[in-house]
Structure to design on (1161 residues):
């Protein structure tokens, strides 16, 4: 059964690649490419679900495929299955969405063929990463995932900013790969690369090696996940990619960094001292705060969403970090709480961030701009997109009864349980983390009021927004699936939490079955510290909402309604120029956090030549350079360029000079071979 | 079964008391300004009048404008079903704890801000932006204050925090509780739009935070939104009183105990109304960009509260 | 704080009771329905519109919310947006520039609504009659319920005018 599902997955993706190669133009061509992706992702989901439900992992050994390093080994256990299901959850709607979205690429400026091939290969390599059973397979598929996503990011080759974004992405993902290589080399320590062997052998490694492996793996996987300070590629690459690819990258690919972290640290290394968890938690808090703070200041809709991905990865790491800390002190039930909270948020983030990116793509498709300041009034012109984007915004702001609330509640509870930690110095940091998490949550709500309100409400601010059309059916179906997922995941945590319990049971020293977290219609944490029932809350809210119009009828309230002009203090006209802008909306928060942002301000006023009391025009420009760009990456790039310029002197350009270089090098090598 | 009926009756009681509470505050302020003022039951007349008037809706507005008042009102009522007003333990305790209460209130703020942006006026946008700023910066204090209460009681469930305080009266004067009370009092003033954060009786749009978002609402929508904001004031006052000074709450469901509970609730709310009225007469409104400093002070108080309740556990 | 409280308690309530008046300052032009009177009688929200007045009437109206005249005791309060208002309190001769805003304010007020025109300028354009800047008196732009004559009328007269519109004015 599982073998046939696996074969179906491979075949479907290959069929998608072939359909793309044979010419992906026209609705049927794009549809076939999407069909391959949908079938492949669906087969993957079914495979993952089977593995989790049955409890037996799926293995496939192909040692002859690549004779070095132990060959090609696939071993899909519960943890990998979860991420495989995650891939399917976002890939299916994204692929359906892509049918309508990629119609815009048929004008020939970007290669539809290439896009289709790389899309299917991207999904295939991500699936195989979750199934990897030894180091070689893992790293190969990881690199495959990075390469295919790079090509996907630079699809729109006509834009120069896209190509630069792609270069940033390629450089950072390979820097991460270098760190991962070092980590795995230390882990294998010259022995077998298979995960099963590593699990056993890792206990024998000395403490310094384990710490080094943890740090390298954390930084390497963290750069893929997008933790601060290694997040800079995210806000560049995600806006540049086509929207359904952005949804996949943001919803799924960065989560594979989380997968890698859990796999290496919890599964292979078997956990470590408490400072590991504290480091993860600390980075999580910083990423969450900085991510949302920079998202607040953005007017590019997709870059705003990319920064929110950084924030949510931070929240996931908070949950996982808390889990690691409890794990190192042997409080296994609380560790499960933290890990389940982190994983639940992974699932939720994939669904609502995927939804939001697809919505942003829909807006981009209709208005040809990502700039929020040029949008407005879209709720009347694109009602479905607006509804789906609203669902995504409410979900990401962690408002009950949608899914963001359930997972943030779990993460809060895991932090609140922090007073159980034996060490007071560590435990006292938990309230700070609670405060920062709450601040992040509030700021995210503010940011999405801005994002939804300015883009969709009021009057259109540009002719493009005025002439916007609703998205085609395939795009609406894609968004609708994810919106449904947001609602279901929010209202039914009673199904999701036991599922996640099965995912983490048995990892490292975690017990085979997690007890202490009870669920009927409500989620209850260990020792009944907290209890909440999003299901009943949703039912209650709905009932109360429905009763209000009934009450109006019973008490015979005046039901008169008249349409009129917006009250503009008696002004003779209302134009879009009089509306609030995104910059203005974020201004109070910009002032509050000015020390962090350090915005630069340029104000130039042109006066009428006759009198200084009449102003002809005012130009206001404000710029915020992100913290890490200014203090870390710009100096780094400057020094790299400086060194490169010095090395460039060696390139004389003359063939004779190069022949002399070769001769000198040959002599040095011969001498070295002689002496070693 | 009686527990559920009681909770629903409790929500109705809160609905009925909320306009009276706000009316009492206004009446007190009027008397402190040496004038007669409207009677304390004036807001009931206001609601009656608003429900009898027609509504005018802007042509720029969308379905969100129509939906928001219902959501704001429904979320406020949902909160009254979850907080201990007259009896503990609550039957709906398994549905929500203190964290759910905080986020339900945030739903109201979220949708009201969106409704402020919808008609496309500059004042609505300004109100929305300021309201979300204040709400976002007040969140950490709320969460950390909840943490300090939860550590003391060993749970975030509202009923159990209250029963814990009833069983262990000495915890009321513990530094953790008193600091948390101070922090939550400042947050109450911020979230309910009272001085020094927001002037509820201002007519100058540039000084408005909450009022600015509802300038376009009329008729029954305005009635719903106003009633919801009065309900929010009642919710915060009753949380402050019943979490920190819970004596008077009925622990058994006998008519005598319930009657005492209702009387005690009204007395506690009256005390808070007097304190707020005196406060508002004495102080002036803070500049908007000073409000984060005030909320920062409340955050520090909350952190001190949690550290002390932690160390004294 | 204590000194402030002392001062408050020493001063006491200074509100003067509203006496009935038999001079002709208040003129009821348009009677309102019984149903409207019942709806707006106990809680009235007023939006004040200045259509080019010299602000003499505004200063008198400002005294209405003070401790001496205290319009709030009758359930009257002032609001910022006409959407919240039940009554428009209009002052000044309607200038050309304020004609359209006055009409828009009237349209922006939900039904049922009342209009009280305060001051001689509002009824007859007062000293500005015939000026190039004046469009006409208030009742030529929007329907008026009550005129309150005077230049400027006393706050008590204005209050009596408002209450006459609600048929709550004190009678002898």
């Amino acid at each position: 059964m599982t073998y046939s599902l696996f074969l179906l997955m491979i075949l479907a993706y290959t069929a998608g690649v072939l359909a793309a190669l044979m010419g992906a133009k026209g609705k049927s061509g794009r549809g076939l490419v999407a069909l391959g992706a949908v079938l492949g992702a669906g087969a993957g989901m079914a495979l993952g679900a089977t593995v989790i439900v049955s409890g037996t992992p799926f293995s496939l050994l192909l040692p002859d495929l690549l004779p070095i390093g132990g060959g090609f080994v696939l071993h899909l256990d519960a943890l990998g299955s979860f991420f495989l299901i995650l891939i399917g959850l976002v890939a299916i709607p994204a692929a359906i969405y892509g049918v309508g979205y990629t119609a815009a690429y048929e004008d020939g400026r970007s290669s539809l063929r290439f896009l289709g091939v790389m899309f299917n290969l991207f999904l295939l390599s991500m699936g195989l990463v979750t199934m990897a059973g030894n180091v070689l397979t893992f790293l190969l598929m990881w690199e495959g995932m990075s390469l295919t996503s790079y090509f996907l990011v630079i699809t729109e080759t006509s834009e120069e900013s896209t190509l630069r974004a792609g270069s940033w992405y390629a450089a950072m993902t390979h820097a991460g790969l270098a760190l991962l290589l070092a980590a795995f080399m230390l882990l294998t320590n010259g022995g077998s690369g298979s995960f099963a062997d590593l699990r056993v052998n890792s206990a024998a490694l000395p403490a310094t090696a384990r710490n080094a492996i943890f740090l390298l793996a954390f930084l390497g996987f963290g750069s893929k996940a997008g933790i601060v300070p290694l997040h800079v590629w995210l806000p560049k690459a995600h806006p540049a990619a086509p929207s359904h690819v952005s949804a996949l990258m943001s919803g799924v690919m960065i989560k594979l960094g989380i997968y890698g972290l859990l796999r290496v640290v919890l599964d292979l290394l078997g956990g470590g001292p408490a400072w590991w968890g504290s480091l993860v938690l600390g980075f999580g808090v910083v990423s969450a705060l900085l991510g949302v703070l920079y998202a607040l200041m953005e007017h590019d809709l997709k870059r705003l969403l990319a920064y929110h991905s950084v924030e949510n990865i931070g929240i996931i790491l908070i949950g996982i970090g808390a889990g690691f800390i409890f794990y190192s002190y042997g409080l296994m039930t609380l560790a499960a709480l933290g890990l389940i909270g982190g994983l639940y948020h992974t699932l939720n983030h994939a669904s609502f961030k995927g939804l939001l990116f697809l919505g942003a793509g829909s807006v981009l498709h209709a208005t040809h701009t990502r700039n929020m300041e040029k949008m407005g009034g879209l709720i009347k012109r694109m009602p479905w997109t607006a509804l789906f984007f609203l669902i995504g915004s409410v979900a990401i702001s962690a408002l009950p009864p949608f899914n963001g609330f359930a997972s943030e509640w779990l993460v809060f509870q895991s932090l609140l349980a922090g007073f159980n930690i034996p060490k007071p110095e560590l435990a006292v940091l938990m309230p700070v983390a609670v405060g920062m998490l709450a601040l992040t949550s509030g700021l995210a709500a503010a940011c999405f009021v801005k994002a939804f309100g300015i883009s969709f409400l009021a009057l259109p601010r540009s002719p493009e927004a005025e002439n916007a059309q609703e998205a085609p059916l395939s795009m609406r179906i894609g968004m609708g699936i994810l919106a449904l997922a947001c609602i279901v995941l929010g209202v039914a945590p009673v199904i999701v939490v036991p599922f996640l319990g099965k995912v983490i049971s048995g990892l490292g020293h975690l017990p085979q079955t997690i007890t202490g977290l009870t669920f009927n219609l409500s989620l209850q944490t260990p020792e009944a510290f907290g209890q909440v029932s999003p299901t009943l809350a949703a039912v209650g809210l709905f009932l109360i909402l429905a009763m209000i119009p009934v009450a109006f009828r019973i008490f015979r309230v005046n039901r008169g309604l008249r349409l009129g002009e917006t009250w503009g203090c008696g002004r003779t006209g209302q134009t879009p120029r009089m509306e609030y802008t995104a910059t203005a909306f974020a201004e109070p928060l910009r002032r509050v956090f000015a020390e962090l942002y350090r915005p630069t301000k340029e104000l130039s006023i042109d006066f009428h030549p006759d009198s200084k009391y009449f102003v002809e025009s005012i130009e206001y420009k404000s710029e915020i350079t992100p913290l890490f760009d200014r203090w870390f990456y710009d100096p780094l790039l400057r020094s790299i360029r400086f060194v490169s310029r010095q090395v460039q002197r060696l390139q004389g350009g003359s063939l004779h000079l190069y022949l002399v270089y070769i001769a000198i090098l040959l002599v040095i090598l011969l001498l070295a071979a002689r002496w070693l | 079964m009686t527990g559920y009926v009681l909770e629903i009756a409790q929500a109705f009681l809160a609905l009925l008391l909320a306009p009276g509470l706000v009316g009492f505050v206004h009446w007190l302020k009027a008397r402190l300004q040496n004038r007669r003022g409207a009677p304390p039951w004036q807001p009931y007349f206001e609601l009656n009048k608003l429900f009898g008037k027609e509504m005018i809706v802007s042509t720029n507005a969308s379905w969100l404008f129509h939906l928001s008042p219902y959501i704001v009102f429904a979320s406020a009522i949902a909160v009254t079903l979850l907080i201990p007003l007259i009896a503990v333990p609550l039957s709906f305790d398994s549905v929500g704890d203190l964290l759910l209460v905080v986020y339900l209130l945030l739903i109201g703020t979220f949708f009201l801000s969106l409704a402020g942006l919808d008609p496309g006026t500059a004042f609505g946008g300004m109100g929305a932006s300021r309201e979300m700023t204040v709400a976002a910066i007040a969140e950490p204090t709320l969460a950390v204050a909840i943490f300090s209460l939860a550590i003391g009681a060993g749970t975030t469930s509202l009923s159990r925090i209250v029963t814990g305080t009833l069983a262990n009266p000495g915890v009321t004067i513990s530094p953790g509780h008193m600091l948390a009370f101070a922090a939550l009092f400042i947050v109450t003033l911020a979230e309910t739009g009272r001085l020094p954060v927001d002037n509820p009786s201002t007519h100058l749009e540039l000084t408005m935070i909450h009022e600015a978002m509802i300038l376009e609402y009329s008729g029954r929508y305005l009635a719903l939104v106003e009633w919801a904001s009065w309900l929010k004031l009642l919710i915060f006052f009753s949380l402050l009183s019943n979490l920190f000074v819970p004596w008077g709450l009925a622990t058994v469901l006998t008519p005598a105990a319930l009657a005492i509970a209702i009387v005690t609730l009204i007395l506690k709310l009256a005390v808070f109304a007097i304190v707020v009225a005196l406060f508002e007469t004495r102080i002036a409104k803070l500049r908007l960009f000073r409000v984060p400093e005030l909320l920062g002070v409340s955050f520090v108080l909350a952190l001190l509260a949690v550290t002390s309740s932690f160390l004294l556990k | 704080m204590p000194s402030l409280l002392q001062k408050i308690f020493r001063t006491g309530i200074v509100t003067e009771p509203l006496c009935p008046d038999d001079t002709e300052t208040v003129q009821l032009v348009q009677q309102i329905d019984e149903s409207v009177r019942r709806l707006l009688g106990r809680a009235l929200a007023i939006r004040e519109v200045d259509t080019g007045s010299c602000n003499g009437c505004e200063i008198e109206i400002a005294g209405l919310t003070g401790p001496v005249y205290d319009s709030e005791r009758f359930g009257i309060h002032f609001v910022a947006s006409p959407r919240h208002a039940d009554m428009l309190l209009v002052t000044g001769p309607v200038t050309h520039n304020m004609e359209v805003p006055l009409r828009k304010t009237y349209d922006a007020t939900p039904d049922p609504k009342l209009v009280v025109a305060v001051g001689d300028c509002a009824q007859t354009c007062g000293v500005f009659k015939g000026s190039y800047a004046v469009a006409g008196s208030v009742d030529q732009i929007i329907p008026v319920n009550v005129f309150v004559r005077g230049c400027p009328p006393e706050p008590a007269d204005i209050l009596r005018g408002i209450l006459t519109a609600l048929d709550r004015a004190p009678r002898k």
